[in-house]
Amino acid sequence: MRHPLVADRKESLLLVVDVQEAMSKAVPVWESSLTRISQLIRAAAALQIPMLVTEHYRKGLGGTFPEIAALMEGAPFFQKEHFSACEENGFLETVRSFHRRQIILTGMETHVCVLQTGLDLLQAGYQVHVPENAVASRYKEDWRTAVNLFRSSGAVITTAEIVIFQWVHRANTDEFRRILPVVK
Asked: Most buried residue, 52, 87, 105, 142, by CB count within 10 Å?
């Protein structure tokens, strides 16, 4: 029997929050975060884990990074203006429609939209996993404080690679061989 905090691909939904073009100008670590976010997306796609994307005030911040959007073809994109996506009409219903209890939460900015969405998802009864190397903020102290708030609120603090290997569960399988290039 697996520990209840292990990311289970049959129970996971990958939620990508506001990975938008305008953020590259504001977030100095966006390139490394984008690499980890991309790994999670590619692994989720290979393992048929559903994905959901939010875009915050697209008119002002632009769309999702083109390379991320291209990887998420077919995933629903949810437009929002509230910092917490859970405050938008229809968002929680959309999340519930996936019938998954674990939300793997990634995106930008950690201390604003990611944090508020994640805390509200915890309040709604979801198990939230935050890969700390796949969320980013403009300032390190804001990122660190948000990760600590997640930890003290009951979220699972993890990394992209930990989640991916928990999803795969074992080596020497076709799934493992499909995932290996994603993490290299």
From this structure: 105
- SS3 label, residue 69: helix
Catalytic residue among 10, 25, 59, 80: 80
Which residues are paired to 141 by β-bridges?
none
Give which of 115, 5, 21 is closest to 69, Cα–Cα.
21
User: Rounded to whole angstroms, how far apart are CA atoms 84 and 121?
Assistant: 9
- Collapsing DSSP to helix, strand or coil, 15 comes out as strand
Residue in 18, 25, 59, 142 annotated catalytic:
18
Mean pLDDT of 133-156: 96
Is 113 labeled as catalytic in the residue annotation?
A: yes
DSSP string, 94-131: HHHTT--SEEEEEEE-IIIIIHHHHHHHHHTT-EEEEE
- Average pLDDT in the chain: 94
Tell me, yes or no, if the pTM score tops 0.85.
yes
pLDDT of residue 92: 98
Fold of the domain built from segment(s) 12-183: Rossmann fold (3.40.50)
Domain range list for the chain: 12-183
CA 103 to chain centre: 8
Residue with tokens 């519930």: 96
